[in-house]
Amino acid sequence: MTERADGPSAWALDIRDVSAGYDGHEALDSVTFRIEPGCLAGLVGPNGAGKSTLIKVILGMHKPWSGEVSVFGRAGKPRAGSVSYTPQVDLVDWQFPVTVSDVVLMGRYGGLGVIRRPGARDREIAAAALERVRLTAMAGRQIGELSGGERRRALIARALTQQGDLMLLDEPFAGLDAAAQHDLISLFQSLVEEGKTLFIATHDLSCVDEDFDHAVLLNKRIIAFGRPADVFTPESLNEAYDRHLMVVRSDQSTFIGL
Amino acid sequence: MEGIVDFFREPWTFEFMQRGLLAAAIVSAVAAVVGSLVILKGMAFIGNALPHASFGGVAVAFALGENLYVGGGIAALLTALAIGYISRRGVIRNDTAIGIIFVGAFALGILIVSRQDNYTGDLFSFVFGNVLAVNWNDVWLTAAVAAVVLLIVLLFYKELLFNAFDPTMAQASGLPVAWIEYGLLVLLALVTVIALQTVGIVLVVALLVTPAATAQLLTRRLSTMMLVGAAIGVASSVVGLYVAWYADVSASAAIVLTATGAFIVAFLFAPGRGAVWRGGAGSA
Q1: Res. B119 pLDDT band, cuts 50 70 90
Q2: Which of A254, B15, B37, B113 has the fewest other C-beta atoms within 10 Å?
Q3: Nearest to B162 among A93, A106, A144 (CB)
Q4: Are B51 and B195 in contact, with CB atoms under 8 Å apart?
């Protein structure tokens, strides 16, 4: 584990007894778990398990009914710049007239405050983020001209310009082919080596089991959290997904599914 | 040669044509700027609803003997805020809420007008527009409102862009997205008011949507889309007024149809994106 300025005891993410929902419908029930700094963590669970709600609660976009969220030891609504975020790709309008570098620069907007324009420093940060995800050559393209994998990388570059040490990514693998997904995982692992903590909502259980350090299994409440090998037991999966999933592990790879 | 010069110069030797051109050019430019945001956010239906709803306010003002624009403006603003409020509540679908409100306000206008004995063409010009009847006061008022709208877009360009492109991320970044949404609706209401006299209730949506949509086919960034859209709007006003002058047809209809023609040309021939270059494949 990397030593951090605010002390090694501070969890990257510390969720305590959080309940939340919409219009009286409960989406999260007494959710409690912790994620250590500098790890690649997966948030998994069936559709409607409350993954997106949990992410919104962490970002301070949705007020929980009860409980507490701490990011790097700091409770309450996260400051601008402490948490980076990438929404699901289908929430983004890819036909919109913006260039790739415009989109990446948007990561700086939150920290600027109203009316102020991004300056030279913000452009440098955005250019570095584009370089980091190997999209510098595409900077001037309209965002819709990118391939599926490049679109994810552009959104990740935007999250990097937010410069949060905790990065929340909502379904970055959805709709990607195996090669593009592999590329993305390599990128995530190198970001973790640089000290970032990544918390990634995904449906790909096998991938979390193979490549992630940590897994949180959610279905309204926490079914299990910890090392993926400990979390993805037939019993826990059965409980989360309400059906029997097969778990097959070999030396290199894992299959979890029907 | 001199004949050609005269052909182009003749309409503008009349002051009412100068005023009409100025009003039409200002309105279509600012409508294209706001309209760019409107079409990117899929708000064309609201763009059609606000002018119709404003007719209720115009009729009330007419019955009370008050300024018709102030009446129309208040109605457009109230409708915009009501739409914003109801769509944020999320009880019924957004477009349903819009439909209910604007038809109600429009019907109120018809109801009031039907009781007026001194029903005049003045009121009628709000429905179909009468750009050649504007006086200098109208022109200055139009210019002042347009300047305010453009200044707001310029100051809050970053916020308007982020919220239009990716509202979830904008909200996650701490931007006040609810205020931005309301602000855009207020801008739309302001454009509606100044566009009423130029093209009338029925055609306002055309000034909002058509030049902006044409510009979207030709550009890759919101800022250039707004500028190109404004240029197309101004050019449509000029060409439309020539057509109106020489063919003796409605100026507002001529302006709108010129813009429609520009859109069709761009739709067919836009570099790389026009239907002609793509062929029948229909691939993205």
Answers
A1: low
A2: B15
A3: A106
A4: yes
Residue A16's SS3 state is: strand
Q: Do B174 and A110 touch (CB under 8 A)?
A: yes
Q: How far apart are CA A223 and CA A207, in angstroms?
A: 19
In percent, the amount of chain B with pLDDT more than 70 equals 95
Domains in chain A, ordered, with CATH? 8-82+165-258 (3.40.50.300), 92-163 (no CATH)
H or E element, residue A44:
strand A40-44
As a whole number of angstroms, the distance between CA B196 and CA A132 comes to: 51
Q: Which two tokens stand for residue B146?
A: 């347009």
SS3 A176: coil
* Percentage, residues of chain A above pLDDT 70: 95
Rounded Cα–Cα distance for residues A78 and A60 (Å): 7
Distance in Å from the first CA to the final CA of chain B: 47
Average pLDDT, chain A: 88
pLDDT classification of A180: cutoffs 50, 70, 90: confident
Q: Which residues pair with A200 in a beta bridge?
A: A42, A169
Q: Are B23 and B197 in contact (CB under 8 A)?
A: yes
Give the B-side interface with A, CB within 8 Å.
Answer: 40, 155-156, 158-159, 161-162, 164-166, 168-176, 216, 219-222, 224-225, 284
Could you give the domains of chain B?
16-267 (1.10.3470.10)
pLDDT at A2: 44
> What's the rounded mean pLDDT across residues A81-110?
90
CB B51 within 8 A of CB B193: no
Using a CB-CB cut-off of 8 Å, the residues of chain B touching A86 are 169
Residue B10: count other Cβ atoms within 10 Å of its Cβ: 13
Contact yes or no for B166 and A112 at CB 8 A: no
DSSP result, B103-153: HHHHHHHHHHHHT-TT--HHHHHHHH--GGG--HHHHHHHHHHHHHHHHHH
B135-144 mean pLDDT: 92
pLDDT in tens, B151-206: 999 999 999 999 999 998 898 888 899 999 999 999 999 999 899 878 888 889 99
Tell me the shortest Cα–Cα distance from B151 to chain A, in angstroms. Answer: 12
Question: Which of the pair, B35 or B96, is modelled with greater confidence?
Answer: B35
